[in-house]
Write a structure and sequence with these properties.
The complex is a heterodimer of chains A (about 450) and B (about 325). Chain A has about 450 residues and is an alpha/beta fold. Chain A has helices at about 5-20, 30-40, 75-95, 115-125, 140-150, 180-195, 210-225, 265-275, 320-330, 345-365, 375-380; strands at about 60-65, 100-110, 130-135, 155, 175, 200-205, 225-235, 255, 280-285, 305-310, 385, 400, 405-410, 410-415, 420-425. By secondary structure, chain B is mainly alpha-helical. In chain B, helix 2 packs antiparallel against helix 8 (about 165-190). Classes of the chains: A alpha/beta (about 450), B mainly alpha (about 325).
Chain lengths: ~450, ~325
């Protein structure tokens, strides 16, 4: 089968996936989807189960997906789930893992750390999954990680939190598919210092995520000869922000914002109204506007400002990006192919795609057969050093540090022009690297 | 106390409670791994609900801020381990002390109000506590929380080491604490003080006319309830290795109210059944639909209509007359 015809078949699969909200509630969905996709993709001459006959066991590889279906992380969770289903369908289409189909078992963690820990227990002791995977919100990761370690359940998170590389967690927790916030922040500082200005005022939410930005960026911009001249922490319960803007010093050259949560649109709207035409340079993290249409009313004031993106929301013409978009069902503006108003969380969800491919590579490297091989899987992934840009890793090349269990990759800075984000700079991987803070390989398995 | 003096206490309902405690222990040996793990967690939360029931079910005070005392226990233990390297027992007791002090201070202020004002004041204090945890992020790690390592969750006596992160040990520890809390609560509600609490719930003016000081008795119920919440919070941190601000949020103030309403307010064993039923309701429905909380809400509404006194409250009315 030619590459093009294969892609066409993949597109057909993604169309099916776009209609999956009802089906996904059934746990056997992915086996079925994978097998269906497999049949469509070119194994028409074989009975479906014949695709896996080379495996010692035809039992599926069970991957427990800890999903934020409800709670504050639901908008991210929905796209994480969609990406996961697409990635698993493609893996099944390619013959599964070690000749066995992949089955994704979804449990809602409610974006709650208690429920998150319960879900990990459920994966380990009820669903008997081989690994757990997928979590985004840091407090859910940190609340779940102790149970994953105790149950010796490999726990692949897609969180971008620094908690993995900081050494807070344990050997069974890995983050190989997405960079962490510390890396992202320090990679931004050189470009901001060189191009936007050296006197920075930071506006951030007054909780751990915002504090990570504050601490890491302050240090990084200082290394560039700049300084953070004001740090404005916004309480998480705040709904109006006008009273904070007068605190921005007049000599500010760059406003750095990283607000998240339901009030973020109000924040950017009020910031635009406050500054009017005479504003300093503005740089933000796209976390503020993930799943938000950049043409939403009130965002006009952000035109000409800059954003960090891990993966450009607007298509750049890259072949691997196009391949990934087609599979997940995302159009060239970062919205769903079936609903242009349904904007994806494009700078985060690729981590699910890449992490599943790393799990596959790890299981194949250690010839994973079942839960008894979980420790071998951890060691196999720890031995990885690079992930090359490909259909498996559409975001780009990555360096993986087996000691800290953390991946490092390139970051992008995009400018918002007439409602469209355009990449103006891409960092090197080295820009985001930092000293090891832990060596998990010294912990017993 | 003579045996004859104890006889009214050692009645069939006392033995019913002992039977429930024995049944909970036996579950460790018969339940599949998943369910025994869940029961360990549920038993910790039952301790929280038992305390809430003392205040709400027996004294008639509806607090919307008990997450504050749960989190005071959790952080009292967790921070002592994280920053002071305290061993398990001193940390556990520091959690209880923290919850006691917070409940004493907040209770002495909040009990100057009544009714809706009491609910709002307790909620506002809890919200303040939640924001303080976020504010002191440097120590608490704010919303992210922090992990309590396995090494801090060991009980060491000479050459004997008990690892509380091991499933069976965790279950037994949760069961032991729950059993003690359940029996203490049974004794409390049947004691003269417990009778006064019930009297205050039924008719505060009459209790006052009889010479009881309502403020003092309500404060005692408030503080003891806070201690139960603190025990549960400290135990959760130690058994499950995590402390986080989520546990101080309003959601965790509402949950014990629901557990108590479901199981039966003013019935000692009510929260045991309420917490278990609610957990499995959420666990099962979340497998079926992402709108599971909607269905949980419908179930609760139906329950209120069909059995407004909760599961055991309704049973007491029809079958188990005199169940404490």
């Amino acid at each position: 089968m030619s590459r093009d015809s294969k892609r066409d078949n993949h597109r057909d699969t993604s169309l099916d996936l776009n209609r999956q909200p009802v089906d996904v509630k059934r746990r056997k969905l992915l086996t079925g989807l994978g097998l269906t996709a497999g049949a469509v993709a070119g194994s028409q001459l074989l009975p479906v189960t014949g695709r896996y006959v080379q495996a010692a066991s035809s039992e599926p590889i069970r991957i427990g997906f800890q999903a934020h279906r409800t709670g504050i992380g639901a908008s991210y969770g929905r796209w994480y789930e969609r990406t996961t289903i697409a990635a698993a369908a493609r893996i099944n289409d390619m013959g599964g893992i070690n000749g066995r189909p992949v089955e994704i078992i979804v449990e809602d963690d409610g974006t709650d750390p208690k429920r998150g820990a319960e879900v990990i227990e459920k994966f380990a002791t009820k669903h008997k999954t081989d690994v757990a995977y997928g979590t985004l919100f840091s407090h859910v990761v940190i609340g779940s990680a102790p149970r994953a370690g105790e149950l010796k359940m490999p726990y692949f998170v897609v969180s971008e939190g620094h908690h993995v590389a900081s050494g807070m967690l344990n050997r069974y927790v890995l983050q190989p598919g997405i960079t962490d916030v510390k890396s992202q922040v320090i990679a931004m500082a050189p470009w901001i210092g060189d191009n936007l200005g050296k006197k920075v005022t930071m506006i951030y939410p007054d909780f751990a995520f915002g504090h990570d930005h504050r601490d890491n960026f302050s240090e990084a911009i200082k290394a560039q000869g700049g300084e953070v001249i004001e740090k404005i922490a916004i309480p998480p319960t705040e709904t109006s922000f006008f009273k904070y803007f007068p605190k921005i010093p007049r000599e500010t050259e760059v406003v750095y914002h990283v607000m998240v949560g339901p009030a973020v649109l109000t924040f950017v709207k009020e910031m635009g109204e406050f500054f009017g035409a005479n504003r300093p340079e503005i740089f933000g993290f796209i976390d503020s506007l993930e799943a938000v249409d950049m043409n939403s009313p009130g965002l006009e004031a952000l035109d000409g400002t800059y954003f960090w993106e891990a993966m450009p929301r607007y298509a750049t013409g890259d072949e691997h990006d196009a391949f990934y978009r087609a599979h997940v069902g995302v159009n060239e503006t970062g919205a769903s192919t079936t609903d242009a108003k349904d904007v994806s969380t494009y700078s985060h969800m690729f981590g699910c795609w890449e992490t599943l491919n790393i799990i596959k590579r790890g299981m194949e490297a250690c010839n994973y057969q079942g839960p008894d091989d979980r420790a071998s899987l951890i060691e196999a992934v720890e031995s990885f050093e690079t992930f090359e840009k490909s259909d498996n890793h559409p975001q780009g090349d990555k360096v993986f540090n087996g000691k800290t269990h953390q991946a490092f990759g390139a970051q992008h800075i995009s400018q918002l022009n007439e409602g469209k984000l355009e990449v103006v700079h891409t960092t090197s991987i080295e820009d985001g690297m930092y000293e090891d803070e832990v060596d998990y390989t010294t912990q017993s398995l | 106390m003579t045996l004859s003096a104890l006889m009214p206490v050692l009645d069939r309902y006392f033995w019913l409670h002992i039977a429930v405690i024995a049944a909970l222990l036996s579950l460790l040996f018969v339940l599949p791994e998943y369910h025994s793990g869940i029961m360990a967690r549920v038993m910790v939360l039952v301790v929280y609900a038992l305390g809430y029931n003392l205040l709400f079910g027996y004294t008639g005070l509806l607090s919307l801020g008990h997450a504050l005392y749960f989190s005071a226990g959790m952080y009292g233990a967790g921070l002592a381990i994280r920053w002071l390297d305290w061993s398990l027992f001193p940390a556990f007791f520091s959690g209880i002390v923290a919850a006691t002090l917070v409940a004493l201070v907040i209770g002495s202020l909040a009990l100057r109000t009544i009714g809706v004002a009491f609910m709002i004041v307790t909620m506002m204090f809890a919200q303040t506590g939640y924001l303080l945890i976020l504010y002191f992020n440097e120590y608490t790690r704010g919303d992210e929380g922090f992990v309590i390592g396995q090494a801090a969750r060991l009980i060491e006596w000479g050459s004997i080491t008990v690892d509380l992160s091991a499933p069976d040990n965790r279950y037994l520890a949760a069961w032991l604490v729950l059993s003690l809390c359940l029996l203490v609560k049974l004794i409390l509600v049947r004691s003269p003080t417990g009778r006064v609490w019930i009297g205050l719930r039924e008719n505060e003016e009459r209790a006052r006319l009889l010479g009881f000081n309502p403020y003092r008795y309500k404060l005692s119920a408030f503080v003891i309830s806070g201690i139960y919440a603190g025990i549960a919070g400290a135990l959760y941190a130690i058994l499950f290795g995590y402390a986080g601000a989520t546990f101080a949020s309003i959601q965790y103030s509402i949950l014990p109210l629901l557990w108590v309403l479901l199981g039966g307010a003013g019935v000692v064993l009510g929260p045991v059944f309420g917490t278990v039923v609610m957990f499995y309701l959420v666990d099962y429905l979340s497998e079926q639909t992402s709108a599971y909380m909607l269905f949980v809400g419908v179930v609760l509404v139906v329950l209120v209509l069909v059995a407004p006194r909760g599961i055991l409250g309704s049973l007491r009315r029809r079958l188990l007359h005199g169940l404490p």
